[in-house]
Amino acid sequence: MKLKISWPTGIVIALVAFMIFILSFVYKVTFLPEYDHHLVSEEYYKDELNYQQEINKENKGVALKENIKIAKDSLGLNIEFPNEFKSSKITGLITFVRLSNNKIDFNIPIQLTSNKILIQKAKLVEGRWDVKIEWNVNNVDYLYKEKIIF
């Protein structure tokens, strides 16, 4: 028995197949966790209002004799603060942001005994990280940002 399909029936079958194809992609992007789409920041608009303050803090850091230095070594990531300040006076927060997976983002409070801090290799997954260091010395706020490949 030979199956005969007329051209109007073929067009309907093609349209239905195309709609199923498109709807399967919509389903994947909407409901499956591996296609999770999220903003870099959940509070995007609030962050945007504070952007000029961040620029001012970054410029204060650039105006120093030496700024923060970040170096990768066999133990992890070394962050060195300027030697012109006493390490006990430096406070703040180091934020590690992974744009590809916000579940592994983490923060480290700055509590120094010397002007260096070591971030252990075990805490950092290989790949690109956005490092944001917000620090304060003598009631002056500074900001340092860098994108690193670990």
CATH class of the largest domain: Mainly Beta
Strand content: 25-35%
Domain count: the total is 2
CATH A-level architecture of the largest domain: Sandwich
Give the C-alpha Rg: 25 Å
- Number of H- or I-type helical stretches: 3
What general outline do the C-alpha atoms trace?
Answer: elongated
Amino-to-carboxy terminus distance: 65 Å
CATH superfamily of the largest domain: Immunoglobulins
The SSE string, one letter per element, is: HHHEEEEEEE
Q: Helical amount among residues, as a percent range?
A: 25-40%
Mean pLDDT: 89
Structural class: alpha+beta
Going across the biggest sheet, name each strand in turn.
4-3-6-7
| Unreliable spans | none
How is the main sheet built? Answer: 4 strands, antiparallel
Number of strands: 7
Provide the CATH topology of the largest domain: Immunoglobulin-like
